[in-house]
Write a structure and sequence with these properties.
The chain is an alpha/beta fold. Helix content is 38%, strand content 15%. The chain has 14 helices and 17 strands. The protein has a seven-stranded mixed sheet, sandwiched between helices. The protein has a four-stranded mixed sheet with strand order 3-4-5-15. Helix 12 packs parallel to helix 14 and helix 13 crosses helix 14. Bound molecules: pyridoxal-5'-phosphate (PLP). Pyridoxal-5'-phosphate binds next to helix 5. The site of pyridoxal-5'-phosphate has 14 residues, from helix 5.
């Protein structure tokens, strides 16, 4: 069938009727297949390839279809619904705006925007004095690129060089793709930006990076100078971190990040963290960069910022956020009143309903369970990365060969057993339940995941 890698042939699967899951039909549901086909006819191919489920309703940590099936969600769609699907605070706030009604205002002021920005700035670290609201994460990383370069120009840099990292990802628009690594994804661009420099990523499986992360960074810089001839002081305007590397939830060693930040600040560069996946409580802290004990200049957020509607944002100091003049940075749909109330209600839920604490506390149990699975499947599950309620299980064989097909099979089998995970198309499976998940539901999901891995390995 066009548009998907997963089978669309309905097959009999064992019925499930547990506390948190229900599977009562063949899967995919026979009636859903013609509907999916209609979608593949009218929507561009790039949007497809997802597990064949038609979502009808989603509440807290559960997803329902229209045919009686119910899944425990370990995806949060794609690290978005941090405060839970259909969080009641968000639904109420949206209803209130709908009932007014006030659905779009462009850059005209609204009380919704005033109140959201007030709450956001009050509840984020003090170096973040202003925010710029946008709709997509890729707009936020583009905006940070612009701000880092404008700042570089202001302080007299010769070039707008940006340090980025091998393997990282920042979105799909031009600047975001240039800062990202994946060479294949950039083929369409047809040129590279000679002022975007990628340094080696300190992966935990690189012994030299782990034994001396600071030296690893220094050697990376030295090689950069040797390869490009740039002057580190005069030609670099900023550094862009993805807080953890997405596909594998891979964090950097703390000493590495601290060395990069110190270098950047010694050289009048701005430090940006792309917090798209790691922000708003996901890793057990409000922002993921907090694990590194550094102070970034700019933060790019999206996804979990509203746990629902399209909200992305850049946070920074007044000095930096006010670099673009009036009218020179705007976006038609940004700061929409509905999005603003969703953003405020979401942050209130995370902070006032203990969801970040839940992420931290349940995260400990979550990672203990996953670490045990490495011991159980030593020939297939080579590592588990992540913090709080995000984890990537990385599947390689004894010779470090990626086991992507096994991951596809595990994701599909989990769907048939009532658990949704993030299918990366690579040798990893990512787990990221809403931060509002209960211990009992998390444990039920993890039991199913463990058994499914065992079964899929046996069949492989
Ligand atoms: C780390 C990171 N940066 C940027 C983006 C782009 O966000 P969006 O898809 O909202 O444009 C993503 C989205 O997956 C991401 O994971």
């Amino acid at each position: 069938m066009a548009g998907t890698g997963f089978s669309h042939k309905p097959k009999d699967v064992p019925k499930v009727n547990s506390q948190f899951r229900k599977i009562v039909t063949k899967l995919p549901v026979p009636e859903s297949v013609p509907l999916l086909e209609r979608l593949y006819e009218t929507e561009s191919l790039a949007m497809h390839g997802q597990l064949p489920i038609i979502w009808d309703r989603a509440e807290n940590f559960q997803v329902y279809d229209a045919w009686g099936n119910c899944w425990i969600d370990f995806s949060s769609t794609i690290f978005v619904t941090n405060s839970g699907h259909g969080n009641p605070r968000i639904v109420k706030a949206l209803r209130d705006v709908l009932d007014k009604p006030l659905l779009h205002t462009y850059t005209f002021a609204t009380s919704e925007r005033i109140e959201y920005l007030d709450y956001l700035i009050k509840n984020t670290p003090s170096q973040f004095e202003k925010a710029f609201l946008l709709s997509a994460g890729t707009e936020a990383t583009e905006c940070a690129l612009k701000l880092m370069r404008m700042h570089g120009q202001k302080v007299g840099k010769r070039q707008g060089g940006i340090l980025c990292f091998e393997g990282n990802w920042h979105g799909r628009t031009l600047g975001a793709q240039l800062m990202g690594w994946n060479p294949k994804q950039k083929e369409w661009i047809g040129f590279s930006d000679e002022n975007v420099h990628h340094l080696p990523f300190p992966y935990p499986w690189r012994k030299d990076a782990m034994s001396d992360p600071v030296e690893y960074f220094r050697i990376g810089l030295e090689k950069l100078v040797a390869d490009t001839g740039i002057d580190l002081k005069r030609d670099l305007s900023g550094v862009m971190f993805e807080t953890f590397q997405g596909w594998g939830a891979v964090f950097y060693p703390k000493a590495f990040v601290q060395a990069v930040v110190e270098f950047a600040h010694d050289n009048e560069m701005l430090v940006t963290f792309d917090e798209m996946q790691s922000g708003f409580g996901r890793t057990g802290e409000l922002f993921g960069y907090m694990h590194y004990e550094v102070e970034p200049d700019l933060l790019c957020c999206g996804k979990g910022a509203a746990s629902s509607l399209p909200l992305a944002l850049v946070l920074g100091s007044k000095k930096v956020m006010d670099l673009p003049d009036i009218g020179s940075m705007s976006s038609t749909h940004s700061a929409n009143p509905m999005v603003c109330v969703a953003g405020k209600a979401n942050l209130q839920a995370l902070l006032e309903d203990g969801l970040i604490d839940n992420s931290r506390k349940l995260g400990v149990i979550f990672h203990q369970r996953l670490a045990k699975m490495i011991q159980r499947f030593p020939n297939h599950l080579s590592s588990v990365q992540g913090k709080g309620l995000v984890a990537a299980m990385i599947f390689t064989d004894r010779d470090s060969k990626p086991l992507s097909t096994l991951c596809d099979h595990i994701a599909e089998t989990l769907m048939c057993r009532g658990v949704i995970v993030v299918h990366t198309g690579r040798e990893s499976i990512k787990l990221a339940p809403p931060l509002s998940i209960t211990l009992a539901a998390m444990e039920e999901g993890l039991d199913v995941i463990e058994q499914t891995i065992a079964d899929c390995i046996e069949l492989s």
